[in-house]
Amino acid sequence: MKYILTAIIFGIGYLSAFHCYALGHLTATLKSYTATQPSLPSSSIIELTLTNDGDRIIEVVSDDIPWVNKYGVITNSSIVIKDVNGKEARYKGIMLDRVDHRLRTTTIEPGEKVVRLVDVPKNYAVIAGVRYVASFYKGGIRYLDRPRSDFRNQSDDNLISLMREAVVQPFHFVADKSYSPESVRLQSEFLTQSCDESQVAIFQNSLSQAASISWAAFNEHSSQFEYSIDPVTMTVVGSFSPSPRYTNWFGFRAGTFDPLNVPPLDQEIDDSIFAVAYRLRDTDRTIPPITLTCRCLPEEVNSETTMAWVREDVHYEINACPSFWVAEDFPTVPNENSRVGTIFHEISHFLDGIWGGSSDLHPAPTYNQSLDLAVNNRALVVRNADTYKFYFLNQVF
């Protein structure tokens, strides 16, 4: 009996060891990039190293790691940069609308190292001489510890629930130069790519529909406010009667408020709805016109997975990719991209004197996930570019 128990214990130990070492394992580190070229100042360039030190292929969530194009510009904001007081340096890289919401992963072989260099002043609004901390929004990087082929017939949600997470330690650095909006505009002018006449006509038709819809939505939103005089205090009291449309996408809002002291989040939502409508509808052109390019260069973005993209400081240029032209004007099912929906998504990104603009959340929330955000995280709702797409389209599925 003793020998049988010994054999069983040995077998369990062997299987445990096999399970431990027969899987992939991700180690991720952030550090300063030591460059020999004077044009690449090391203190503001961060090196992310991903190492598979396990025995099997791993699949890393692509949106959890920065994707850097040929020009050193990031196409997703997976890294957050904050100063020592916790103030976030605004992301200035490319913001894009993806073709779909599928889970995309990056394969790393056993023993392989993947290195990404992030030029911070080119992608974040940092100030020279200020100390910052670089970290990941989610705290770590999610991955499957074996190939996706081992998880046949699993949904994306199920795959995410099975993932492990590599914790990445924050990295401290001092910026040696500041972000320059002018350099972004100059690059945009240098790389511009015109569309043909048929594409311009299609875009103008979609843009006209977006402008009309957004202005009607803004007027509807404005009609939900009423103001009266309190007979006791003789002060103005505001009341808000939200439509189901507003509550669905922006969440619960108190019915009464002080017009001179509107809660900041409510005020930003009001500003954002006006900003999208005004950018699309400004007939007097007190702001720059919306311009279109067909600039979807493979060295800048992945043209196969991108509908369109913008840089928030290049007002108000929308760069359309091939998928934009084969899409319909409006979606027919949840999470289907469309031309008008993409225009709402992209126009919400810009940073100007009207509103600070939205962000691309990673991974991008689906239709139902955006509805959930309105219930559970209103602060994130106002940052979610797809919330504006769904709100203005006003489609119920």
From TrEMBL:
The protein's name in its UniProt record: Lysine-specific metallo-endopeptidase
Domain Lysine-specific metallo-endopeptidase: 267-391
Organism superkingdom: Bacteria
Transmembrane segments: none
UniProt cross-references to Pfam families, sorted A to Z: Aspzincin_M35
Any one GO MF annotation of this record: metalloendopeptidase activity
Species, as recorded: Pseudoxanthomonas wuyuanensis
